[in-house]
Design a protein that fits this description.
single chain, 5 helices, 3 strands, alpha+beta, 16% strand, three-stranded antiparallel β-sheet, 90 residues
Length: 90
Amino acid sequence: MKDVFKALADPTRRQILTLLKEGDLTAGEISKHFEISKPSISQHLNILKQAELVYDNKVGQYIYYTLNTTVFQELVSWTIEFIDKGEQKQ
C-alpha cells in the first residue's frame, strides 16, 4: 500500500492514470500531454508499475500501458473498511 500512496501523491502520475482511464497508451502518446521530458515520463511510469497501478504490454515494437483496476478496487475496499470502523466507534 505504501508504494500506491507514494505513486498517487504526485500530480503528474495522477494525470497519467486519468489518461489511462480512457484506454491503453504508449509512453510517447502519454508524453504528448505533458511539458516534461520523455525520460521523466518513463520514470513516472516505472513508479506506477512498481506500485502495480499500471502494467505494460508489448505489442510489436510498442509498449502499451494499461490501468490496473484491481489495485484501485483494493484501495476502495480498504477505504470503505476504514470508514466503517470509524463510524462504528461513534
